Amino acid sequence: MPLQLRRLQPGTAVTIDAPARLHLGFLDPNASLGRAFGSLGLVIDTQGTRLEARLAERERIDGTVSDAEHERIALCLARLQAAYGPATLAIDVVHAPRPHTGLGSGTQLALAVGTAFARLVGQPATSAELASLLGRGARSGIGILGFDSGGLLLDGGPAGGLHQSVPPLLARQPFPEQWRVLLVSDNAREGLHGAQERRALGSLTPFPQRLAAHLCHLVLMQILPGVAEHNFAPFAHGLTEMQQTIGEYFASAQGGVFASPDVEHVLRAVAAERTAGIGQTSWGPTGFAIVASAREADSVLVTAREAARGMPHIECSVVAGRNSGAAIRSAETRAPRIDAA
What we know:
By secondary structure, the protein is α+β, with helices and mostly antiparallel strands. The protein has nine helices and 13 strands.
């Protein structure tokens, strides 16, 4: 029997900091050996989601959320109440990344809401259980696994189709502290999602087994060993080749190897100057260039901004990897308030 947790008092606020992730590529979209997808991903130290929640007399959803995100939070709460019993929450989203940019914002938001709800009502629930309940992790488990642990992660894809289980963790490596990630985002675009994503996936030809084998070889014998040994060059070369291979496969659905030609232009300019692991996270439009040090990151940021001159919709920034999962805090407020209005 799981330990029964105590329901928190109405004056207690639970704060969840859920980290963003980069989806670095699928291994086998066609399930040539019976398991679909399989994902490589990296948790990063910025662009995450923070929300604060407390028990209340009336449901309230405030903060930096769009109408669509407001609806998603309300749907999450309805599913949580159906599964774990009635509880009314007041939720304030302090900050969240722009949705559909490849940073895993939907999974972050769902797990943050689910975790806060479970803590407030005293319900023991794992991230995998919450993800299944809230409809996350159908293809990739990187956001769920990253919520728990951070780091560079490899999952095995869902077993028995898209809706059977959360993909299992196969490998986790701490991301080297000195390495940095240049993010290049096109603020005029969104990545494919929802019905558009499903149609795009359905339009693709079967992924060749020989390419799936090649991607698995790159991950197992170049990318993961490079991270484990802090050996940057094989990691960068392996990741760039993996991204190019999977990008060519998705090109017909997203309009090219990169969803944004301007993001591609900036990243190609960076790659022409130095060794970097370049690619696009998920459906984009955010791209990345991983480099070996903070000094190199300063240099590539200058290169990227110069390449993006005259493109006000292109945003460039440098982030680090994050080797820890979500931060969860509970605290009594100084003066318990009634969220009745």
